[in-house]
Amino acid sequence: MYTQSFNVPDSPGLKSVPLAPSTESAESQARFDNKIDADGKIEPQDWMPDAYRKTLVRQISQHAHSEIVGMLPEGNWISRAPSLKRKAILIAKVQDEGGHGLYLYSAAETLGTSRDQMLEGLHSGKAKYSSIFNYPTLNWADMGVVGWLVDGAAIMNQIPLCRCSYGPYARAMIRVCKEESFHQRQGYEALLVMMQGTAEQKAMVQDAVNRWWWKCLAMFGPPDADSPHSAQAMRWGIKRISNDDLRQKFVDATVPQAKVLGVTLPDPDLKWNEERQHHDYGQIDWDEFWSTVNGNGPCNKERLATRVKAHNDGQWVRNAALAYSRKQQTQATKEAA
Ligand SMILES: [Fe+2]
Ligand SMILES: [Fe+2]
């Protein structure tokens, strides 16, 4: 659902295993630089600097983990959706997120890291995923707000990734973004319906907006001035738009949507700035953000425990698939003999 726009410390479980020879020669470097300058795509078989490969492995695997962990806060509401229609929509959305995780693990695998290495990083707590999923989803309106604002912020972040310099990541993002657009719309539509309902329903929507708004602004990552790795990622064509610019685009796009919906965005400093032709907005609580990134958010432990349990519970499926494939191989060998 979303990619984190900041760098977290290297995860020992996520060491990349270069497929192409990594001996840096001036010639390979020049070929790589020229391709980047010409806005071309780097493909798995191409030579690439180790730091480029490492940055991509970290970003794509974090993105994949975010999709997978992102299934949990919403999966929690499938059995409590208020109607068959909402249940079907929510199941489809959660299933999409699982699919996004799988595309992205596949994209990261093309860089020479294995699925097992990436899962080990996630399950041991060494690898990060988007912190937004470490907050609870308290009522049904949260499902609408997560779609509208969290998926909305994810789209803002992910559309520029369709032009990322690494081919497999850029191509995966095209389909992911189309599906994210459905996620955002279904959330907004669910909220529109609730806002035509009772005073209690309207209050639920406003309460959910109040709880999620600031956390969604933080999803774009720290201010540009505190994001030292961003410049390199931009130079490499991995990142196309800075954290602050994406955040501004999101605020400007969301304000009119909030007006149509009839909710207030919980920021007294939010106002149109005629001179800048953008909305000004208040201060984000970065201490709270970093505390959650570092494992102390309200649901960090619960999310990880649920994910590890789901993985362990699925062991028999993996065993069965392996046994079946071995059986097929034995059969094929027998037939060939
Ligand atoms: Fe999504
Ligand atoms: Fe997604």
UniProtKB/TrEMBL annotation:
Residues 30-40 have a biased composition (Basic and acidic residues). InterPro entries: Aromatic_CoA_ox/epox, Ferritin-like, Ferritin-like_SF, PaaA, PaaA_PaaC. Keywords: Plasmid. It holds the Pfam family PaaA_PaaC. Residues 1-40 are annotated as: Disordered. GO terms for cellular component: cytosol. GO terms for biological process: phenylacetate catabolic process. One of its GO terms (molecular function) is phenylacetyl-CoA 1,2-epoxidase activity. SUPFAM superfamilies: Ferritin-like (SSF47240). It comes from the Bacteria. The keyword RNA-binding does not apply. This is 1,2-phenylacetyl-CoA epoxidase subunit PaaA. It comes from Polaromonas hydrogenivorans. The gene is paaA.
